[in-house]
Every structure is written in C-alpha cells, then in structure tokens.
Amino acid sequence: MDTGARLKLMIISVGIDLVEVERIRAALENSRIGLRFRHRVYTAGEIAYCEKKQRGRFQSYAGRFAAKEAVMKALGRGWGAQVRWLDIEVARARSGKPDIVLHDKTAQLAEQLGIRKWALSIAHTARYGTAYVIAQDE
Q1: What pLDDT was estimated at residue 6?
Q2: What is the distance between the alpha carbons of residues 125 and 40, in angstroms, rounded to a whole number?
Q3: What confidence category does residue 1 fall into, taking pLDDT thresholds of 50, 70 and 90?
Q4: Is 19:127 a contact under the CB 8 Å cutoff?
Q5: What percent of the chain has pLDDT over 90?
Q6: In the annotation, is 97 catalytic?
Q7: Is pLDDT at 69 greater than 70 in this prediction?
Q8: Tens digit of pLDDT for each residue in 32-64?
Q9: Residue of 8, 39, 73, 117 with catalytic role
Q10: Which residue in the list 8, 53, 97, 124 is annotated as catalytic?
Q11: What is the pLDDT of residues 5-28, one digit of tens each?
Q12: Rounded to 5, what percent of the chain is helix, strand, coil?
C-alpha cells in the first residue's frame, strides 16, 4: 500500500476500568438482588458466554462489567437515559476476539460523537477484571 492511500485513524476517546471479581461474584450470588443484577447489566448472550466458563465465570462477568464501564467512560457518560447497561454488549467475533456492539440510544449517542468503531481489550486474574477501549472514527 502506498503512503498516499493509507487511511488515517482518529482516536476519538478511550476508556479503562478495573473491577474486583469478588464484588461482581457477591452481587451475582446475592439472593435478594443477584438475578435482577444479572439481567439488568448483562445481555442473554453475555450470560450464556460467562456461564459456559464454569470456574472462571465470575472473572468473565467482571471483565464484561469493566468493558461496559470503560465504554461509558469513552462516551463521556455514566449510566442513564442515553447509556444503558444492556445497550452495551460484549460480543465475540468469529476469530474469538471480544467486540463492542452498541444498541438503541447508546448506539445513537456514539454515532453523534462520531464513533464508528471500537477496539477492546479485556484481561482478568482471580481477583480483578479490567478492560480498555478505544473509540475510533473508522
């Protein structure tokens, strides 16, 4: 590819988050709020993916929670009318790489901000889940 034909990538914003796995596990296992928390924060696809992990499921839930928080930070908004938990989905590309898929009002907000593409990295240990996102225009 010649240098004149290169695409210029513009980073619009970034977001990062770190969450304690134990905090997510405690919320999910809480007999009073656990089920409501799970279905308020995670999509059906995310729940299915995390539950398949069996022993590592709480780390997977924590990583996805961190990814959603990192997206909110990149959007410059917290949870609210324009940004909802279920409108931010961590999906899997065919390659197995995690991807961000936005829905409804959150997708509309990202479009208004000029965000067309997301880069996502998730990592976790037994104690922490973390995610880093880059919001891009192309």
Answers
A1: 56
A2: 24
A3: very low
A4: no
A5: 84
A6: no
A7: yes
A8: 999 999 999 999 999 999 999 988 999 999 999
A9: 73
A10: 124
A11: 456 679 999 999 999 999 999 999
A12: 45, 25, 30
**Cα–Cα dist 7/18, whole Å:** 32
DSSP state of 86: G
User: Beta strand 88-92 with 98-102: parallel, antiparallel or unpaired?
Assistant: antiparallel
Q: Say how far apart CA 119 and CA 73 lie, in whole Å.
A: 14
Question: What is the residue whose two structure tokens read 């619009």?
Answer: 12
Tell me the two tokens of residue 25: 């596990």
φ, ψ of residue 103 to 5 degrees: the values are -125, 160
> Structurally, what CATH architecture does the domain formed by 9-136 represent?
Alpha-Beta Complex (3.90)
State the Cα angle at 81 between 51 and 46, rounded to 5°: 10
Contact 45, 100 (CB under 8 A): no
Whole-angstrom CA distances from 50 to 31, 112, 119 are 19, 31, 21
The sign of the torsion formed by the CA atoms of 23, 39, 97, 1 equals negative
Residues listed for the chain:
138
Structural domain spans, the chain: 9-136
Q: Name the DSSP letter for residue 7.
A: P
